[in-house]
C-alpha cells in the first residue's frame, strides 16, 4: 500500500555522494525535527526527470526555504555515483537540493511507490511523486498517475500545496 498523508516514513538508509565518497544517510535522522520536501522520480538522466522535475525544484528552492522548508531531497533508485554525476549536470546541489540514492529500492518499496516497466529497461524504480514531511510524518503527498507526467509532483505544485490553508 502506498504511503499517504499522516503516515510516518519508515526508517531507511539512503546513500549520498560526498567529496569523500559515498556516505550512508539515515532518513529518520535527516528528518527528525525538520520540515523536508522529498521528490522522487524514475531515474537520473531520464527525460522528464531531467527536463522538468529537477528544474522545477531548482526554480522554487528559494521559495521553499522562505516557506520554512529546511531541505529539499531528490530521491531516485540509482547508485550514488549516478546521482552525483546528475547533480553536477543539473546544478541541483548548487541550488540546495540533496541528491540521495535508494540503490536497492528498499525505501521506495517500503512506501509502496515502486513500479517496473521492463520494455523500457526500468526495473524496481520509483513512481514520480513529491511529499512534504514534518518531523518524519507526511503532511502532503502528490503522486503522478503516469511516470512521464510532472504536474502534481513539480516544484510549483508542491509549493502551492504547502502554502494552502
From TrEMBL:
Q: What reaction is this protein's catalytic activity? A: a hydroperoxide + 2 glutathione = an alcohol + glutathione disulfide + H2O
Q: What is the lineage of its organism?
A: Bacteria, Pseudomonadati, Pseudomonadota, Alphaproteobacteria, Rhodobacterales
Which UniProt keywords are given for this protein, alphabetically ordered? Antioxidant, Oxidoreductase, Peroxidase, Redox-active center
Organism this protein belongs to: Primorskyibacter flagellatus
Q: What GO molecular function terms would the record report?
A: thioredoxin peroxidase activity
- Keyword Oxidoreductase tagged: yes
Q: What is this protein called?
A: Glutathione-dependent peroxiredoxin
Q: Which family does it belong to?
A: Belongs to the peroxiredoxin family. Prx5 subfamily.
Active site at 49 (cysteine sulfenic acid (-soh) intermediate)
The record places domain Thioredoxin at 3-164
Among its keywords, does the record have RNA-binding? no
- What enzyme category does the UniProt record give? oxidoreductase
Q: Return the GO cellular component terms, semicolon-separated.
A: cytoplasm
Enzyme Commission numbers on file: 1.11.1.27
Tell me the function of this protein.
Answer: Thiol-specific peroxidase that catalyzes the reduction of hydrogen peroxide and organic hydroperoxides to water and alcohols, respectively. Plays a role in cell protection against oxidative stress by detoxifying peroxides.
Q: Which InterPro entries match?
A: PRX5-like, Redoxin, Thioredoxin-like_sf, Thioredoxin_domain
| A biological process from GO | cellular response to oxidative stress
Amino acid at each position: 500500500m502506498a504511503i499517504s498523508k499522516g503516515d510516518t516514513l519508515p526508517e531507511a538508509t539512503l546513500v549520498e555522494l560526498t567529496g569523500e565518497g559515498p556516505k550512508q544517510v539515515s532518513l529518520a535522522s535527516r528528518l527528525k525535527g525538520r520540515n523536508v520536501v522529498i521528490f522522487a522520480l524514475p531515474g537520473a538522466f531520464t527525460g522528464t526527470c531531467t527536463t522538468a522535475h529537477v528544474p522545477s525544484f531548482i526554480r522554487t528552492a528559494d521559495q521553499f526555504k522562505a516557506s520554512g522548508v529546511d531541505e529539499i531531497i531528490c530521491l531516485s533508485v540509482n547508485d550514488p555515483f549516478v546521482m552525483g554525476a546528475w547533480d553536477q549536470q543539473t546544478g541541483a546541489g548548487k541550488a540546495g537540493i540533496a541528491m540521495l540514492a535508494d540503490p536497492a529500492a528498499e525505501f521506495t518499496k517500503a512506501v509502496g511507490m515502486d513500479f517496473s516497466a521492463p520494455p523500457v529497461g526500468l526495473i524496481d524504480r520509483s513512481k514520480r511523486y513529491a511529499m512534504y514531511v514534518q518531523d518524519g510524518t507526511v503532511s502532503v503527498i502528490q503522486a503522478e498517475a503516469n511516470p512521464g507526467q510532472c504536474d502534481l509532483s513539480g516544484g510549483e505544485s508542491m509549493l502551492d500545496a504547502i502554502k494552502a490553508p
